[in-house]
Amino acid sequence: MPAADDSKRKAARETIDILHEISTLLNTHLDRQSLSYCVSLIENGVNPEALANVIKDLRQHNPQQRSDNGL
Amino acid sequence: MKSLSGNTRDDSTFGGLRDRTIKSLREGGHGRVNPFEIKDRCAGLVEKFGVLNRDDLAGALQSRLDSLPKTRWNPDVLSLLLQLSNRPLESASLSDLDGLTTVFSPPTELTWEDIVADDPLTDEDVWGEIERGYHSSGDEEAFDGSNSEPTTSTQATSFAEDDFAALARLHIVKPDATLLGDVRTAQETLSRPSDNSDTNTMSELTLIRETISMLRGLPTYLFSVGTGGVVSISSNLCIATASKPMLNHVLSNFAKIGSQLVFLRHWTQQKRSEAYVQSIQAAVQYTTSAIDLNIGRLEQRFIEPPDSCVVSLIDVRIEVEDFTRAAIHLSSIIVANDRTSNGNESPSFALLDALYEEACIADMAGDTHLFSAIAGALLSGVRTYLRPVLLWASSGDLPKQDADTFFVRLDEEDCPLGEIWHKRFALRLQSGGRACAPEVIQPFIQQLYAAGKEKAFLKLNGHEADESVVDIVSLAARLSMATVNERLTTNSLMPFDELLRELLQDCFGATRPPDTTTSRTVMLEHVDLLRHIHAFDNVFLGNAGMSLQAFTGSLFGLLQRGSSSWHDKFFLTRLAQSTLGTALSVDAHCVSVSVLADDKPARGPVSRQLDRIKLAYAIPWPVQNVVRSEELHTYSAAFSLLLQIEYAAYVLRPQTFDLRKLEFGWRSAGPALQEALSLRARLIWFIGILRSHYGTVITTHANGLRRGLEAADGIDSMAETWATHDKHLRLCLLLAPNVAPLMDAVKHILRLSQSLEDAWPSLLDQSTSLTAVTRMAAEFDKNLAFVTAGLRSVSRAGGETALEALAERLQWNAG
Fold it and tell me: Is A13's Cβ below 8 Å from some Cβ in B?
């Protein structure tokens, strides 16, 4: 039913908004799109700790990140 | 990956990073985080912010955590965020949150400045005069309407006044006729006449469609309705998914169900005169309506099938059998017990009785659904039947409708008031002696009958004004399935018949509120029954001795003088009213005396003449309903006996036998005189014993009668008490037919007094022989012995102690 789908989408949007705000408060440097990808991965069974390690690892490989850190 | 690592697909390291990432994620395991640990960590973080003077962050974080919708993944996501958090105390600020939300700005409105900027109002004609009036396209020469096509809006606003069809066409949605194509094709196939050798193969859906239409009572090609509403299969069909015998079997089951539904629908439409049957018809119609709803739901499933819908005739059969089970059972009950469908003359209320029995069976079997259907029909019928019953019990009025089947009938409408209670109404009985009422009411028949009679009696007695109005409709409405279910929830083990009996008892009890005037109250307090009983004792039984003596003294004097006025009933009545009528509790004007006609000469023995005098008392009609007679025959006979005894005592009075009148001394009296004196003494003794017995019996029985009447709960008990008292009194006073010989012997002895008195003058002048006196004495002895022996045998047979005592006393001195 279209009305049910709309409400589901709206609920999901609200959840992502709040999580994004929490993410901002915790200074995780995740933008909204990345956060929604992470949530999708977790909902599909990915271990949060493993995901966090992957994100940190990927950031290590970011040239911009490395220059910010003085590497 | 791109946003985190900054590498795109074109970079050389992208592929390796991607593989490593995927491998890390796969090897990361599927362990779940501990939600309580995450919750504690979040709470700890909030507290840390608060302690380190970042209340803004603490409040913001706490509010977001509280408003986060609860999902199962929250702990995992929060765990991720906590692991990725990077010194939020130093780096985070609330202003970062402001950058996240985008303010919704409404589209800019069109302003006159924009219009003017786009199209300046420099044209001179803009400010010219506007021609008022209707501008039709036909007036403008430049306008060529031949090429223009009417738009929808033009049509909508400029329709011709009589072109409603065009307007309707704009708003009516035309159904798509092609959707019914399959249905029409199937119906054409079904409608083709086929012989036995030709079978049509149809789809299962078509068969289901036909079956549903048949169950709704609509005409179909597959089924035909014959005489008597019997549904049969009319077409030779087969389906690809089942064998022919199986299909015929299933369709036959449907046909049977359809037949019974047709019968039910037809039966509920019949015009019936009995009100309770009409109520049952309504209840059954409710059941068939529920079936129609279920059929509709079933049909809806095939019209708007869900994602997975199995088209199965067997499934449909199972469902249909389930929701028609109760209706089929009702149908079989009605066929077997309703007089119009049975053909034979069923007894009245056979349908109600059958519903009652089946409801009890269903309740015992624990079949809740069947019980609800049958009990619902039963209670609707009983509710309607109860209304005239409650009207009768609360007001004593017979119903005008269905009067031929009501359990009370008007027996003698014009019966005298004194027989109102016993003869006006009677129970209407069926063959077998059972009252004409349903089985469920049978235990209450006597109670209801007496209650209604009491109300009718009280109304005649003028005691209906203080009765509170009983709401019959709400009383009857208490018998409903809601009440039954409520009782069953509190006491689920109570059988239905007991529960129904309890409800009926409460219902009938409500027709007699505690402060209701009863017939007992009216009889004892308003009619003053006991006062009238006392009056009877005073008038007939000589309780008021002085009044009796005054009456008898005058009467006997008249008789002895031979006055002709003694048989003048008016004179005697006057005499009785002035003597007996002055006794306590007696209404003098009610006393009357009559003299029976006699062929024998008027101057016969006085004792025989005394038998012609009949004393009567005008009994009020309410009391007549208790004594069951306008006259008190036993009391009249007792008064006659009393007159005989008193006359015998009167003639043996000392004045008559004053021996000082003797010319010679009594010592020189002859043997005849001496024998006469001895006889006189014995006669006086006998009369004394009779009087004593008379007084004892009357006193004892009067006390017993009074106690019995005070303890009676209604007129029926009072009448029974009176009848018992009357029977005992008759026996003890030797007035009963079976002791008539004893009474004759007693009267013979008493008449000896008259004989002795008649012979006294001749005894005095010694002209009477001893033989005559001896004969009288012998008669006395003989009758006395007979009376004594008779009393003994009667007392032994009947157990009357008073007669036993009388026999004992007569025997003491006789010997």
Answer: no
